Fold this sequence. Notes:
This protein has 5 helices and 4 strands. By secondary structure, the protein is of the alpha/beta class. It has a single domain, classed as Rossmann fold, CATH 3.40.50.1000. Strand 1, helix 2 and strand 2 form a beta-alpha-beta unit. The radius of gyration is 13 Å and the shape is globular. The termini are close together.
Amino acid sequence: MLAHADSLRSAGRNVSILSDQTDWLDEIDRRTPFANHFDRVFNSFYLHKSKRDATIFTDTCHGLGVDPGDVLFIDDNIRNVERAGSVGLLTIHFTGMGQFPER
C-alpha cells in the first residue's frame, strides 16, 4: 500500500491517513517509518474523536482544505465507510489488495 501511496503522491494527489489509534501509532512510525509516505496523518487520539463520529470526516476535510466530495475514503470497516459517505465523501470498502491494480 505504501507503494500505491507514493505513486499517487508522485502524480500530484494528496494522500492522507485518518486512523483510529492511540498514541501507539507514533510508536509504530518510530519503529517502521510510514508517515513520510503521506501528506498528512490524522490520528483520532489527537483529534479526540473516532470514526464512530461522522464529524471526524468533515473535520479532516476541513484540515485538508478540501470539500468532502473531493475526497476518496478507503476503509476496511463498512460502518466507517457508511459514515464517511453520509457526509459526502466518496468511498471504497476495502476487502483486499485485489481491488487495486499492481501499478
